[in-house]
Amino acid sequence: MTVTLAVLGMGIGLGWWALLVWLYPPRPTLSDLVARIRPAPRELPFVPAQDGGWAARAGRPCAASLRSLGLPRPGTEKALALVERSADTHLAEKAVLGLTGLLLPATVELLLVVGGRALPLPLPVAAALVLAVAGFLLPDVTVRAGAERRRRAFRHALSAYLNLVHVLLAGGAGVDAALHDAAQTGHGWAFQQLRRALNTARLTRSSPWTALRELGEELGIAELTELAAALSLAGTEGSKIRASLAAKAAAMRNQDGAAAEGEANAATERMALPGMLMAFGFVLFVFYPALNQISASL
Questions:
Q1: Predicted confidence (pLDDT) at residue 41 exceeds the cutoff of 50
Q2: I need a surface site. Which of 31, 63, 72, 198 has the fewest CB within 10 A?
Q3: Residue 19 domain-assigned?
Q4: What integer is the mean pLDDT of 145-157?
Q5: pTM for the full model?
Q6: Peptide bond into 122 cis (omega under 30)
Q7: Could you tell me if residue 126 is inside a domain?
Q8: Which residues of 234-249 are buried (b: 16+ CB within 10 A; e: fewer)?
Q9: Residue 160 resides in a domain
């Protein structure tokens, strides 16, 4: 009974806190008010954000409230840019999944009460809290996993891109021409982002390594930022870039090979336990009749 009262008290307190935040939102700072009066031109990200489905539309009214709490975090924003999702869509899905996890045990409990098989009150309350937290955090986990997969794919494509740039530089092309021509060769997602960044640099009359550096910072890919720094030295101080690009491409290939080998070894270790369980079940299936007869004869 004490646990039930404590859980109910926590729920009531959380509800009152949410109501007070909604009625009396935090006062904006002076810099935010000045920014609203004189908004600065916002730079568009290199990776466009796409809208979600029904969950995003249903939870759209809750996105502003979650934004007032400081969500999403900077790391999550980079991951959202990488998987091409908007922050409002992500926050809306978090709200919908959290609310679904909160109401699902209550719905099941209501059906059980109607059927005459009600569960103890602490069980649905605890299940509602656990499912609400899990549903609220599930979009973050999914986005971060998808972003990490895209980062690995981008690094693999960047290694091929460096090889193409090295070949074009060896053929006598300039740095700018080699960067643009090599980006036109590939057709994957990574090459699309490279082409968009370089085309943006050409239209805005800025250096291509600046655009690549901004793309690397936006996606959280340190190898692309290092490439932009090396290209900046080649473009401004005339340093030789061919050997540096070849060494960087070889290092990235070795790193990708080591990572793939590590993942294969981890998958092999994970398969050891199911294999042992299958072997144990097979042995038990073969020797069980004999053991049963021996035990019956004793």
A1: no
A2: 31
A3: no
A4: 89
A5: 0.66
A6: no
A7: no
A8: bbeeeeebeebbbebb
A9: yes
